[in-house]
Amino acid sequence: MAVDSSVAPVIIKRKKVSGGDGHHGGAWKVAYADFVTAMMAFFMLMWLLNATTEKQRKGLADYFSPTIAISRVSGGGDGSLGGDSIFSENTLPRVGTGATSLRPTSQHAARGASDPGEADETGAQDEALEAVEDLLMGRGGESMISDTLMRHIVTRVTDEGLVVELFATEEAPLFDAQGAPTELLRALSGVIAGVSDMVTNPLAIEGHVGAYPIVLARDPSWEVSTRHADRFRELLLADGLSKARINRVTAHADREPAKNNPMDPRNTRLEIIFLRS
What is the mean pLDDT of the chain? Predict the structure, then answer.
């Protein structure tokens, strides 16, 4: 039988396909991302170690520590000094557990209460001061003062005791132009005298004023701050506070402003300190 030569022959081509030769899948991308993340974390750690001080690094380490230190003072020793220098006046005030150069104490007193009875008394005193602060600021849901008066009160706890700051504003001064106490200050005095009955701590009164214009021939800031502190002392006595509880009355003039602007009315303030006994 003859073959038809007019029909084109069928040619079959077989193409070999190799899969994944170009990129071998996506697993390498995950590994590379982990590597970049680790390097970024490493360089951030190096930067933080270089940018922080030893004290800051220790604070961070203590924050993330899962245990609570038994001693309030960090140190490598467990002896009488607890790892600190023998110069307790230089070391202990810095860590917040000791005296200052203005009020030096003996070693055991500078390091805190060692007698269990003394420690209990200190703890009870701190709780009483915190109760006074909570009552003034209305933190427990109860407040003996109105919102208007509360806007003029700032409290803070220091090594010296509970500091209650009464400050003036441009709209509501504490003293009038003649230096007499305003109704606002009289109301605040009643509040301080009322909460002072909750504790037996002695009180210190400190007067501060804003700066006066430099064009004045005589700067009256010392006399005015002294008069303010003494007038508030008289108000407290009139409101029933025992004069035996007033430990000192101090004037600071304009030397310790609360605001950067020395003439800001906020700098005119009174500080009443419930001293630790």
Answer: 77
